[in-house]
Amino acid sequence: MQILYFAWLKTHTGTGQETVDPPEQVRDVAGLLDWLAGRSEAHAKALRDRQAVRVAVNQEYARPSDPVQPGDEVALFPPVTGG
Amino acid sequence: MIRVQREDFEIGAELDALTRDNPGVGGLCSFVGLVRDLHPDARTPDSESGEGRVHGEVRAMTLEHYPGMTEKMLRRIDAEAHRRWPLEASLVIHRYGRMEPGERIVLVATASAHRQAAFESCQFLIDWLKTKAPFWKLEETPDGGCWVDARVGDDAAAARWGRDDWAAE
């Protein structure tokens, strides 16, 4: 599974992207964020405020209960500020 | 039509190209977003009057985006505008990369037989773009880099046009 980080999530985790292989129990977006937060102190800090994190699965906005599976591209980013 | 690019654009040339050879266009509306030199946090509580504002705080801004998803969302927002209004043509150009105050960031243009559809759809496009297209602004200030926070007012502006079933809010 490919994880992409943008804006301050990239700054805080210290990485723009990483390939991960979460355990089978990780089946949805909320579960994935919990698992990612346990990867390092930096991840935990970046994901502390879940309200401030938006998630896209395969380039579609996703809710915490939406499923994730091996091979997905999952992007984590703050609320968007373009325009 | 949508374009995501690093380089600047010429407003006149873009608008001419949009309506050329289409005599059905009776009204053309455009919005251009520019880099401001004022960091929102630099405002005093007295921001309504503009007194006490500190200008020149933002030296430059870097627009980051999510290649692939950006184009996908812009195309979808553009298609939604065509579904809601009788448009002859539309154009969204959004830049990324580093820009200095005064530089153009975004151009939205809509063309229709009559002005009302052009005005409304132009506002719709920029309102939805601001809350759904994956762009983020990093401001360079004397104190270092600062990621711009999303504004509640932008959510309200986008919500005026109804909800969609594809963007998590």
Automatic annotation (TrEMBL), chain A:
Gene name in the database record: moaD
Region named Disordered: 63-83
SUPFAM superfamilies documented for this protein: MoaD/ThiS (SSF54285)
Descriptive protein name: Molybdopterin synthase sulfur carrier subunit
Keyword Nucleotide-binding attributed: yes
Record-annotated membrane-spanning stretches: none
Family named by the database record: Belongs to the MoaD family.
Organism domain of life: Bacteria
Keywords: Nucleotide-binding
Organism: Rhodovibrio sodomensis
UniProtKB/TrEMBL annotation, chain B:
Source taxon at top rank: Bacteria
Reactions it catalyzes: 2 [molybdopterin-synthase sulfur-carrier protein]-C-terminal-Gly-aminoethanethioate + cyclic pyranopterin phosphate + H2O = molybdopterin + 2 [molybdopterin-synthase sulfur-carrier protein]-C-terminal Gly-Gly + 2 H(+)
EC number(s) stated in the UniProt entry for this protein: 2.8.1.12
Key words of the record: Molybdenum cofactor biosynthesis
Matches recorded under Pfam families: MoaE
Pathway in which this enzyme or protein is active: Cofactor biosynthesis; molybdopterin biosynthesis
Quaternary data: Heterotetramer of 2 MoaD subunits and 2 MoaE subunits. Also stable as homodimer. The enzyme changes between these two forms during catalysis.
Family: Belongs to the MoaE family.
Reported function: Converts molybdopterin precursor Z into molybdopterin. This requires the incorporation of two sulfur atoms into precursor Z to generate a dithiolene group. The sulfur is provided by MoaD.
Protein name: Molybdopterin synthase catalytic subunit
Species, as recorded: Rhodovibrio sodomensis
